[in-house]
Amino acid sequence: MIQTNKLWKRFGRIDALRDLSFSVPEGSAFALIGANGAGKTTVIKVLMNILEPSQGSATVLGVDSRKISPHELKQIGYVSENQDMPARLTVAEYIAYLRPFYAHWDRQLEAAMLRQLRLPLERKIGDLSHGMRLKMALLCALPYRPKLLILDEPFSGLDPLVRDEFMEGLLLQAGEMTILVSSHELGEIDGVATHVGFLDEGKLLFQESMSDLTARFREVYVTLESGQSERGEFPNDWLHVRSEGNVLRFVDSRFSEEALGERIRSVVNGVRIVDTQPMALRSIFTTLARAARNGSA
Amino acid sequence: MIWHIVKKDWKLSWLMITGVAAIHWAIAAIEFKSGFLSLNQSLVQLRLLLDPIAVMGSALLIAMIIQQDAIPGVRQDWLARPIQRWHLLLEKVLFVVVAVQVPILAADIFLGLANGFPLRQTLAAALSREAFVLLSFTLPILAFTSLTRNMPEAIVSAVIALFAWAMLMQTVFVAAGGGDFERVEPTLRSGVAWVGESLKFALVLLGASTVLGLQYFRRKTMLSRCLAVVFLLLMLSTSFLPWKPAFAMQERLSPNPASGGATVLAFNPGAGRFHSPSGIIPSNENTRRYGNEGKVAVHVPLQIAGLPTDSVLLADRSEVCLISAGGKTEYCGTGEDMHVYKEGPDFGEVQTYQKIEVPVAVYRRLRDQPTRVEINYSLTQWQLGRSYAMPAVGGDQRIPGLGWCKTKVNDDETVVELSCMQPGKGPHCGNVCATGFLENATSGRRNPEYFACEPNYSPYFGDFDSVMTHFNAGLRFRDALGQAHFPVDGSQLAQSRIVNRLYQPTDHFTTRLVIPQIMLQEWEAQ
User: Fold this and answer.
1) How high is the pLDDT of residue B293?
2) Which of A:119-138 have CB within 8 Å of B?
3) Which parts of chain B have pLDDT scores under 50?
4) Percent helix, strand and coil across chain A, each to the nearest 5
5) What CATH number is given for A2-213 in this structure?
6) A86:B68 CB<8 A
7) Minimum distance, in Å, between the CA of residue B103 and any CA atom of chain A
8) Chain B partners of A78 at a C-beta cutoff of 8 Å?
């Protein structure tokens, strides 16, 4: 559905995207995660042909992003936290303006979403709150049942109640849609994303399905007999290794139930107890981000 | 889809469109109410106030329409919508034309029809003016605002651009001639100024098409901005179009080429020095005798042969060079505009003086030295079309070429005022020259003629201010100081009429006059 290939985007001397390659499988909900300034919005603007890549290429719905035409845009829903809609039109006027551009605009779905999102039809867009404007953007992106929905920081600045309304509106209609959502808030994509990519300073550190990711990460606690210490180098896939008394703690990024004991014993003596804990998504990303900055990821 | 965008733009800008249109219509109403002579000062003041508001309002309206779907930027919702770029561009151009230009067209048509002019003449003038406003105002602003993302940015950019333009023009003028406009812009205020203006319009079309194409189809704002600057500089350069190619173009468009071929100009020392004609003082007498400050006026007597009957010969430009006996060119400049007219077959050769304003320093060097004078003339020959007579007092007549004319005596009772107006070109800034005189219909006595000829040979009509052109001439019949006496005085006005003669250009041609040797001091005005 989306494919980028060695994508670069430069703004003057700054590389906003560096050699970015990733793919979003059809039917997936791909979360692009990264801190503020990591390049998430830039990727999305390139995919939407709002920005032109400096190097490399991207394809969306099988078409080079630079050649995206109204034909493709009819199949893409786009919601962004900083989306400028005509401030002096009312909600109703703008929806009425957009309808004719989409041959498959579903008036019933539009009405259902209006009820669900509780948007004031007669209010001018410029008078809407930030949250309402995001809901408005969502309302303008779904009734034509796009194949691909691109959400750029859709939860930014939303209070929990509005966020839940937004998510309900989204999930209710998601159906077979492929979704690309960018966020710097991990909690927001938990339970939504099926795949995830981690972007740091314009570079993609990894992309993986959520199930694989959560399966391969474990926090490991190794209790050693007193007086024992490690006898060799730790493997590279052990992250954030530290000792606290006779307890060795680390994050195993290639967790395997069967192999773990053997691997531990190969580097430390006197292993008494090995305890493993599944990790929350937030902890996984924190670990990865720290490792990336230390150059060990 | 274009229609949907039109409806959206109308919803967003109908108030502004109506407001700007109302200002244009108010100006037309004021102009209609003012009639021939704007004597009502409050209307004059109101017009002076409304004119710049109309211009600013129209410019802001264009910016507003374009920026409803701004091109620069990455946040606009329309970028993610299935809108064909060429639909958007076409809609913007059409909507701007309809919102800005159609109200002006309506006001112009109202003005022409309300003043009793035929629809055809009114429509032709109004449409020509529309094209002029489109090329000189609407299209450049449309292209310019497509480079900006919001109103503050457009206003700040416009101020910077205007300031840069003014600074550049000032620099060019200072560098080229210390403010000598004739030298730097030789076609300025001449009949062939339209050649440079047409070049400018061609560049506007090309520049606007390029910028709008790049913006709407490629969204290359930085490149478009650079190109806009290049086109602005090219447009600036058209102001400095040399005289020769401009007039050569005009020569090719002569209605009756070679009809001026028989005209011969020759130095005529036998005519003696220039003297002020006694009794009657022509309006420009003072400037004829005394040159501008820092210059000495030299009047070279000329004899012009071969002029057809009932014709006018007008020097559009005379380029004069003074060359010393040693062959050194001491001075080159332009001579004063010269015109002669030949009425009836009885006149033989026509005599006149070519005034040359020589800088004092050059004059001091050359005054008693044999000096060679070379004058390159760019001339236009005009042929009498028709003559019209109307009462000197209370006249009210429609005259082809002059328009709707009225006559009245001024408050001081010294001048019969002839006022004419018509949609489109007239004798002022037109391709008609007019002469006229006050004549006692019974005795046949005449007062000195007025001569109105400010040619504009452009094949189109274009005036930013109004579709109506006004022509005013004053025919003196009394000297308030009592020094001059007129053959037709105030007591004869009731039996008198104004005879207007309208001339049309037949040939544009160049000729060169070489006077091998003269002493400048011998031709200084007495």
Assistant:
1) 62
2) 137
3) 278-291
4) 35, 35, 35
5) 3.40.50.300
6) yes
7) 24
8) 80
